[in-house]
Predict the 3D structure of the following.
Amino acid sequence: MPQISQLAETFASQLFWLLLTFGIVFFFIGRGMAPKVMSTIDARDKSVADDIAAAEAARVAADAAEEDWRARETAARAAAQEQVAKARAKAAAASEKTLAKADAKAAEKLAAAEARIAEASIAAAAEIESVAADAAKDIVARVSGAKVTEAEALKAVKVALDG
Amino acid sequence: MAAESGKIDPMHQFQVQTIWDGFTIGGHQIAFTNSAAWMLVTVVVLWAFMLGGMKQQVVPGRWQMLVENFTGFVAKLVDDNIGKGGRKYLPYIFSLFMFILFANLLGLLPLGIFGVHPFTFTSHFTVTGVLAIMSFSIVLIVGFWKHGFHFFSLFVPHGTPPLMIPLIFCIELISFLFRPFSLGLRLFVAMTAGHILLKVLAGFVINSANASPLWGGIVGLPSFTLMVGISALEVLVAGIQAYVFALLTSLYIHDAEHLH
């Protein structure tokens, strides 16, 4: 077995070259290259994790914005409804007022007209009396030839008219 | 083996051959051998592999993805087995895993067809032993550095009756001291056994085919079919052994970091 039979003559050489080559591997590859590869892997893992975290944050923000928008929309709807109700109430009140005013004016007009009618009928009655008294006086004068005063005729007419 | 002409030595592949006599350090001859050459090849291939993944793009290409998967795999191994404070051992565990994995896989390449005979230096316990001692030294240094003599409480599990403490301590200490041996020998044995098996079967194929077409059909063909399967298995073993070495090292470091 050469491993044993050559042990003495090759040991120093094997040891020297092994330490040299393994030293190169350790210092240049193990300590030089491997940490760089690891840092690349770590940087990539970190950037992926960061991207996922950013996406998650954006999703949460979008949810919050949607929630906010929903709340504002609900509030705006409520405000609009309130305004509509207020406007409706105002319009109703205004129309009632106008109606009342018109009513009052009409009533006033009616009253004035009634007053005028009453006045006219009184005047007409008075005229009828005077006309009737005249007629009565004339009739009396013509029929009997007696002279009646206007006041007597008027009194007689009044009695006859009033019953 | 059969005839002298067809003699195939399955152990020849583990022979360390000197390419260049090299130099001496402290009276020791440091030759440049085929083993050293394949260590350098491993470094270059591993470096080229890693370089393909150094673009550091946010959206990785296929090659970068592969390199990141390997790195992420070792990082997960370290996180799972060392836990808190484990990331500082990532360069060591990563180097260990990738170095052993690439050495195992490069040693399996059928480059002998082109005349370049791969040498699996992880099939030498001088190499695996040194790697194991390195891991074990880290465990000892970290353990005593962090916990001082309290590190010895590692050898007394919780709830041990006071009467049993000396015995348990000795057993635990011995099992602890065996760790570098089991760590180094496991890799060495797995790689050696697999390569011997492949070479023995390859010898069957060649010798039986040389003997006669009949023997080639009876012995060579089934052996070759078996070799295909075992080659696939060896690729798996190459990965598993590198994983086991890295896994056990990180488990031992966990003990040193956290004591149980």
In short: Chain B touches chain A through 54 residues (CB under 8 Å).
